[in-house]
């Protein structure tokens, strides 16, 4: 342990802080540090493999004798299994294993729940065999609408205790023991100050009810694994965000020692929060492989992916807020009901509790169970929903007290980082002229609008990860770390950190990830991968480099502390002529090179702490004749600590923004009231933003030296999508002069909002929106 | 999934129902295929011309090209995402035109020239569009990338200098869940020589005042491996 004086802060404003540095960990970089590669635009290490089709995803794994498995799923929203007959299926051509998943008497709680599985020599024969499984279902009353599920006397999703088959990474809060009445569980509550007093002090109070639809993760590579037994050892290629959490789940579900389970993820086709566990499909594949005595591939198809392996819960949020006429928030209150189907975790209170300063805040969050597939964590759980309701409320409140919405936010935002981001974003989007731009002279049916929203995130990574860096005699280096790359660029991030610390070009670094036999890597969730992994890699590289320095010192005939790094090599302090280049120093290493394994140090509690802040602005065009909304531009200004790779970080913000636009305008899982089945389990009726829907996206990173870890790194995956839907919705309201309180905003809801607008004398005789200036 | 509800058809349902029709349609095509008799239901021998090579395989007539490529021939660069022609992940070129390989019966494309992602790079050298995808980071998880690259290649084959709108249209059938489109547009413009590599070396809108004190911005092309650089030079020449 040593105390270091660090200069921390952002935007040229640094304060000196004394921070305790753990032994074995390098001190965080100083703002004066000259970087060779950190923060540059570096193409990802595996881009070539992806662009040429040689990248091997888990779904691409083919093994000799491998069988193909499929799962039979319940077609009923609620049923009890009365009998399950697998005899005929076992006799089908090519079938090698058949396995029940449900048993007679089991309750099935959503259409798509797993019933049985088969493995056969071809995918087609596996599918045929499913058709030979005989199941008798006793159908039960079901409920797939949240209002009906809440009502007294509604069919109960869980007669007894909540029995959702949980997998790692299920929606946060889902497992807490909470009171339950009927299908309604909760509340998870928080209460600060006294909202009643706060509302009494307010000069203006607004309230509104906001709703959001269910969004499915829709990662392009579906959930699944390839499972292979060799004796009593299991190897699984999984499409996962957490190779170690999959290993742990398989070990406990199959009663196999952790030491005998290996999980591999070389390449991964997206996760977005839903892929932390082995899941029913992973465990089932391993069981089928055991029974058949052959490797088994079990990957879901697109429909199964929509139905059974996760979604962002719906929400119905009642928000009430008060402010004084000089623009200070006096009270914020939220009551939210949401449905994650057979799972909980529907809270949306994060933004309301944490973005704006307010002395009186009360929140109550309820899970409503219904007969639909279980939720799972989804990119910033609860936050896009919560930000949508909060930011609409902020706009309405600003309007009520006659204050510019930007100024109103500036007055209430305690984050100096975000206030700076607001300033930058407002400038870039042309906030000051937004009212003047609303009407488009040459297109009278078009209204333009500009809206904004705040993003917040919390995680700064933490202990657990380990990494080994080996420096070879030819000066090249190898980094081994059991993290996985979901497409975020984690593999490249690992290489960049090592290259930066060692002063090597990236080409001299080999990065090995995605294998549970490697030193422990974090699960990729909560935007914690980079802030957990980067400092670990840097510490291991730093320690390995110190070993090279020690060897150099001995060659130079001086004590270990008498050498210093000097232009890519080592020199005796004060004697720059007595030096060894990096290559010379490495050439004298033992045959095995030198290695160091480092663990992630604790976050520095005395660093420059803040919640990760972001600000987004959107400009939209609304056709008031058709109701069609087009997003023209999004400005995204984000705190990403010190950006490791500006190119891939930009890609991730593009992705967060585009997913946010998709959430704001398109995505909607639709359940059929009559059958309880999803009617759009595909990618053409479940609409996801595509190339025609993408606006100009302007990305800015505000570098922050926080000193929390030795690289000042922060994750960007989640913050990038928190504010987008809120900003788009506010822009639509600004454009049409009417508030739409539900997502997705569809042409129908735009026209309905225009129709519901109070008519003024000016527009009574005119067009739908009327009042053209 | 197996589903007795028929609430949504799958590729395989379609294939089952359309087999006879598809066979009949193939019979009318210009390529002679012995399809005047019903094929199957068991496995049949097939000959496919893929990436300049002749592949013989035995598969049921209901097997679609995407599955033949991936499961039978080990050409797993082609991906399957929706299985019903709605996402473009399985895009290959059939006689030079982009097509969804999940909608084509393998038996139906015998005699046609199939080009998959695996054939674009040659002698270890990437096609310019692939090199541009690498340099512009036009991929995140990469699962849509094969299809995206094939669509972009087909575009550039027919239109050397596409406009931004033409690029958007060309990939409008390719779904990317990571939201990589802006960099895809940029990659096509780079490969077409509309946008030079230099135009992209500055981090996006880091203003000088808030730029971290970095000694230098590493040009993305400096970081691209030799094959990429070569390919880029090639197309710029």
Please give a structural write-up.
The complex is a heterodimer of chains A (773) and B (237). With 773 residues, chain A is an alpha+beta fold. Helices cover 27% and strands 26% of the residues of chain A. Chain A has 20 helices and 33 strands. Chain A has a 7-stranded mixed beta sheet. In chain A, strands 9-10-20-19-18-11-33 form a 7-stranded mixed beta sheet, with helices on both faces. In chain A, helix 6 links the parallel strand 14 and strand 15 (261-264). The longest helix of chain A is centred in the C-terminal third of the chain and has 28 residues, at 529-556. The termini of chain A are far apart. Chain B has 237 residues and is α+β, with helices and mostly antiparallel strands. Chain B is built from 8 helices and 5 strands, in the order H-E-E-H-E-E-E-H-H-H-H-H-H. Chain B has helices at 11-28, 65-72, 128-136, 145-158, 164-170, 181-191, 220-223, 226-236; strands spanning 44-50, 53-59, 91-94, 97-100, 113-115. In chain B, a hairpin with a 2-residue loop joins strand 3 (91-94) and strand 4 (97-100). The longest helix of chain B is centred in the first third of the chain and has 18 residues, at 11-28. The N and C termini of chain B lie far apart (50 Å). In chain B, 54% of the residues are buried. The model of chain B is unreliable at 1-32 and 198-237 (pLDDT under 50). The chains are: A alpha+beta (773), B alpha+beta (237). At the A-B interface, helix 1, strand 3, helix 3, helix 8 and helix 16 of A face helix 2, helix 3, helix 4, helix 5 and helix 6 of B.
